[in-house]
Design a protein that fits this description.
The protein contains eleven helices and ten strands. It is α/β, with parallel strands linked by helices. It has a single domain, classed as Alpha-Beta Barrel (TIM Barrel), CATH 3.20.20. Strands 1-4-5-6-7-8-9-10 form an eight-stranded parallel barrel, surrounded by nine helices. Strand 8, helix 8 and strand 9 form a beta-alpha-beta unit. Helix 8 packs parallel to helix 10. The radius of gyration is 20 Å and the shape is globular. Bound molecules: ligand PBG. The site of ligand PBG has 10 residues, from loops.
C-alpha cells in the first residue's frame, strides 16, 4: 500500500491544516421575524429558539447580530392587516419598511441589512404575487408591485433586497425600477433556484401564513436540477448581485453546480424545516445538536455556498469563535 489517506487525519492539528472549508461568522445571515401586533417576543413552536419579535426589539436584535460578528440579517415581517394586493408591503409606514428603517439605523455600516421582497406575508390569500380574475398568480402584474415594494424597502434603508417570489423577470423589473429612481447602490439577492418544498413547513407558522394550496406554479419542481441552473443563469443575466439556492441540504447538487457556473456570490438557505429536523432529533437525544448544526453549515460551504442563511446563525457564530 503506497497511498494512506489516513495520514492526514492523525491529529487535530493535521486535520486542521488540511481542512478545505472553514466557515466563519461573517458568512452567516440570520432571518428575523417582526410582528406588527406584538409588544413582546412570541416563540415559534415549530422553530425552537426562534421567535416573532415586536418592532421595538429591532435595535437589540441588530446589536446581538453585530456582537456575534455575523454578516447580516434578513428581515421578514407580519402585518396587522392583509389585503388581496398586499398593500402594506409598499406603504412606507408598513411594518417591514419600518423594521428595515430601524435596523439600518441601528446597524450603520456594521452589518448588512437584507429584506425579504415578496408578497406572501402581506396578501390575504398568502400567495407570493397578486391574482388575476381566475385566481391564478399574475406574473406581470406582480412585477409592478415588486417594483414599488423595492423602492419602499430601498428608501427605508435596506442594503440588499431578497427577491424570493419566483416570478419570471423579477430581477430585471426590480433593477430597472431602482435604477430609474436613482437607487443604483441597492444590491439584489435573487432566490434563483427556489423549490416548492415541504421543508418550508415551520416558516408558515413563523409568518402566520394564510396560504391554502401550494406554490407549484411559481416555485420549482424538486425533481428539476438543470432548470435550477437555468434560473440561476437568467437571474445573473438580469443583474442579480447575489444568487441563492433554497432549501439547502436536499439541493446540494444544485448548489454545487450553481456555484461552479456562477460569477457572483452564491448563498444557501438552510430553511425552517431543515433547522427543525435537527432541533427535533436533538430534543429527543437522537443527535448531537451542536455537531449537527456545524456539519450542516460545513456541508453548505463545501458544496459552494459563500453565504449561509440560517436560524442558528448566532449560535453557530459563537461555536465557531469558541473552536478557533
Ligand atoms: C417566501 C418565503 C418562504 C420562505 C422564505 N421566503 C416561504 C415559501 O416560499 O413558502 C421559507 C423559509 C423557510 O422555510 O425557512 N417569502
Amino acid at each position: 500500500m503506497t497511498v494512506r489517506p489516513r495520514r492526514l487525519r492523525t491529529t487535530p492539528a493535521m486535520r486542521r491544516l488540511v481542512r478545505e472549508v472553514r466557515p466563519h461568522p461573517a458568512d452567516l445571515v440570520l432571518p428575523v421575524f417582526i410582528h406588527e401586533d406584538l409588544s413582546e417576543a412570541r416563540p415559534i413552536g415549530s422553530l425552537p429558539g426562534v421567535s416573532q419579535h415586536p418592532l421595538s426589539a429591532v435595535p437589540a436584535l441588530v446589536e446581538a447580530a453585530v456582537e456575534a460578528g455575523i454578516g447580516g440579517i434578513m428581515l421578514f415581517a407580519i402585518p396587522s392587516v392583509r389585503d388581496a394586493e398586499g398593500s402594506a408591503a409598499c406603504a412606507p409606514g408598513g411594518v417591514l419598511n419600518r423594521a428595515i428603517a430601524a435596523a439600518s439605523r441601528a446597524a450603520g455600516d456594521r452589518l448588512v441589512v437584507m429584506a425579504d421582497l415578496c408578497l406572501d406575508e402581506f396578501t390575504s390569500h398568502g400567495h407570493c404575487g397578486v391574482l388575476d380574475a381566475d385566481g391564478a398568480v399574475d406574473n406581470d402584474a406582480t412585477l409592478e408591485v415588486y417594483a414599488a415594494m423595492a423602492r419602499a424597502q430601498s428608501r427605508a434603508g435596506a442594503h440588499v433586497l431578497g427577491l424570493s417570489g419566483m416570478m419570471d423577470g423579477q430581477v430585471a423589473a426590480v433593477r430597472g425600477a431602482l435604477d430609474a429612481a436613482g437607487l443604483t447602490d441597492i444590491s439584489l439577492l435573487a432566490y434563483a433556484a427556489k423549490y416548492a418544498s415541504a421543508f418550508y413547513g415551520p416558516f408558515r407558522e413563523a409568518v402566520d401564513s394564510q396560504l391554502v394550496g401550494d406554490r407549484r406554479t411559481y416555485q420549482m419542481d424538486p425533481a428539476n436540477g438543470r432548470e435550477g441552473l437555468r434560473e440561476a443563469e437568467l437571474d445573473e443575466l438580469e443583474g442579480a448581485d447575489l444568487i441563492m439556492v433554497k432549501p439547502a441540504l436536499p439541493y446540494l447538487d444544485v448548489l454545487a453546480e450553481v456555484a461552479a457556473q456562477s460569477r457572483v456570490p452564491v448563498a444557501a438557505y438552510h430553511v425552517s424545516g431543515e433547522y427543525a429536523q435537527i432541533e427535533a432529533a436533538a430534543a429527543h437525544g437522537w443527535i448531537d445538536r451542536r455537531a449537527a448544526h456545524l456539519e450542516a453549515l460545513t456541508s453548505m460551504r463545501r458544496a459552494g455556498a459563500d453565504i449561509v442563511v440560517t436560524y442558528a446563525a448566532l449560535e453557530l457564530a459563537a461555536w465557531l469563535e469558541e473552536s478557533r
